[in-house]
Design goal:
Chain lengths: ~200, ~280
């Protein structure tokens, strides 16, 4: 009985994937600084942006974060304690050998990078050891990917629509997916940090 | 969840067998492509085809060449445009052309040329820099259908606005409309621009060296390969480039993590333009 209890309660994670669109810079700037220096997971982020965006986003977030924040590079090995941001105009994919790939194939949900592409490939690699997070945004990219994460036993977290600058993306995810946690923006950073560091949740 | 995970393992096994079947039957080798990418492309075709699983797909592609040709289009990404990444072409004009102008004759190779948009972009640059008549351009792709499109130089009229904006940002010296004629819903690239281009079939994975080149363009092709295959193809480029020759990659491709990083100097970091060192 107690063993069964343990196997239900303990879920360890390898990575967090975050999908965010309109209002993302402000949201990420509040979440990432809450991650402690010894944050044990890799963080992979798709933020929708203009195709000619420069590296402002990741450079800015890097100055705010205790973890290394960088632009994701093709065939790079994924490391813990590191935040990877998908480059503009490329999809970001997770390979089964835990490296990253980029792709310039057609837009998905009118987006490149697309949240679904990252979430679905990450789900297949990390399976139940993955946390998927949908934040503010004005479309429904990410909903399908979050569903895939759940289907492999991963954890689904969504920003509460009331706390989102644009609530369409969180609402779509909540309507379509059996989400595990709905968390307001001001608690999201601490919440994810506790999850990642293995503190109690649920 | 256990079932889902076991199902995924089986799917991966079936995909491996399917890629093996493609290689054995048709000679196209996708076995060292990036596997997440390949799986997505195949998933897409599986959904459209109404087939139930990759085992069925394998059977069908062995027996039905038309079906295989559709799949071939799925597996090659043909998303591009004229003067894609305008800053790249600007850099070519500023940093590369002055070197190329010191040669009496140059050879350029567009490897993975897709429907030819970037080939004709370079033709325009060479024309405007007064070099077109002493250049031979080789443009290759493994996909015969796409090569036919490239040869025809016909593009839908909707894309011309974007191409024109790119051309101007890339430092174009004339009016972009000088280079095509419009007919109904499409445009045709002028014949004079095509004069110096030889389109032909070549597979980077299975075919060998291709003459001696002064400059090679291979943009947004290597990202679809795994690391070993990237290194193999970069070796092919290295063997093909003359000393002091230029290698141009896609804006998110790099020699950084490869075996050949010490063999090149960086001409332009953001534009991913490299120059093969001259060895004594």
């Amino acid at each position: 009985m107690k063993n069964r209890q343990n196997s239900i309660r303990i879920q360890t994670f390898e990575a967090i994937v975050i999908g965010v669109s309109a209002g993302g810079l402000a949201a990420l700037a509040r979440i990432l600084p809450k991650f402690k220096k010894d944050f044990p997971l890799a963080v992979l982020i798709v933020q929708h942006m203009r195709r000619d965006a420069d590296g402002f986003l990741w450079r800015h977030l890097d100055t705010l974060s205790r973890l290394t924040v960088k632009e994701a590079e093709d065939k790079e090995a994924i490391q813990p304690q590191t935040v990877y941001i998908a480059p503009p105009d490329y999809h970001l994919l997770v390979e089964p050998d835990r490296t990253l790939s980029l792709s310039a194939e057609a837009r998905v949900n009118f987006s490149r990078p697309s949240i679904d592409v990252l979430f679905e490939t990450a789900a297949e690699t990390y399976q139940q050891r993955l946390i998927g997070v949908i934040l503010t945004g004005a479309n429904n990219d990410g909903t399908r990917g979050l569903k895939t994460i759940k289907s492999y036993g991963g954890l689904a977290v969504v920003q509460s629509p009331e706390s989102a600058e644009s609530d369409a993306m969180p609402r779509s995810a909540i309507e379509e997916v059996a989400v595990d946690h709905i968390v307001p923006l001001d608690r999201m950073g601490r919440f994810l940090n506790d999850l990642a560091c293995g503190n109690s949740h649920g | 969840m256990k079932n889902k995970s076991a199902e995924l393992d089986n799917e991966r096994l079936e995909i491996k067998l399917l890629l093996e079947a493609i290689y054995l039957k048709y000679g196209f080798d996708f076995r060292d492509y990036s596997s997440a990418h390949t799986k997505r492309r195949l998933e897409n075709r599986l959904g459209l085809s109404g087939l139930e699983h990759y085992g069925q797909m394998q059977h069908r592609l062995i027996h039905d060449e038309a079906f295989f040709n559709e799949l071939l289009l799925d597996l090659s990404i043909n998303v591009t445009e004229m003067f894609r990444d305008p800053w790249f072409y600007k850099k070519i004009r500023e940093e590369v052309i002055p070197h190329l102008q010191t040669y009496p004759f140059i050879r350029a190779w567009h490897a993975g040329c897709s429907a030819g948009q970037e080939v004709y972009s370079m033709c325009i640059v060479l024309e405007e820099e007064g070099m077109k008549n002493r250049t031979q351009i080789y443009a290759t792709d493994f996909n015969e259908l796409i090569l036919q499109k490239a040869r025809s130089g016909i593009y839908p009229i909707e894309v011309i606005r974007d191409y024109t904006a790119n051309y101007q940002q890339a430092g174009g010296k004339k009016s972009f409309s000088d280079y095509y004629s419009a007919q109904y819903d499409h445009v045709i690239i002028n014949q004079e621009l095509k004069d110096k281009v030889l389109f032909s079939s070549h597979n980077l994975v299975t075919d060998g060296v291709f003459g001696e080149m002064n400059i090679i363009f291979c943009r947004n092709v290597l990202i679809y390969f795994n690391k070993d295959l990237q290194n193999k193809v970069l070796k092919l480029f290295h063997d093909t480039l003359c000393p002091g020759g230029f290698l141009c990659l896609g804006s998110k491709e790099s020699l950084k993590f490869t075996n050949l990083v010490d063999e090149y100097e960086v001409v332009a970091e953001r534009e991913k333009i490299y120059r093969k060192k001259r060895r004594p």
